[in-house]
Amino acid sequence: MASAKTSRDGGDGIATDSQPQTLDETNKRIVTLLQEDGRRSYVSIGKEIGLSEAAVRLRVQRMLDDGIMQIVAVTNPMDVGFKRQAMVGITVNGDIEYVARELKEISQIDYVIITAGRFDILAEIFAEDDESMLELVNRHIRKIDGIDRTELFTYMRLESQRYDWGVR
Length: 168
Prior knowledge:
Blueprint: H1 25-36, H2 42-49, H3 53-65, E1 84-92, H4 96-104, E2 109-114, E3 121-127, H5 130-141, E4 147-154
Antiparallel strand pairs: 1-3, 1-4, 2-3
């Protein structure tokens, strides 16, 4: 998250007010450890960073509630039946934010980015096969009011997918 969040800490790792917490050094260490292993126990994290299990649990819950992080299972789409993935470059004639909101509602789109440059929006899509991808693009994405043009960049092979970039 780009915006700074504030919190007071009573010294025991537990925030003492209702303000969203800061991504302080302790929270950064927690995030880094969870990026290495999202199933790691709060007891184990606490031992490594010097907090109680309850303090770690509270910090993690607050970061989840504040939208600072998510804990999810990440799969290789190819291995779970989605044989086609693509990046879609979208040129919009009209309200870019409206188009982005509409795209977010399509379950086969895993992220939507408003960008500057050749395209107004980039969206990553996944589908079971070529026919499903054609239906997704032709009958769902291109039907959204304001979309002027789309360009598909079909993935031939997923070489790398990382989520361990850490925190700053």
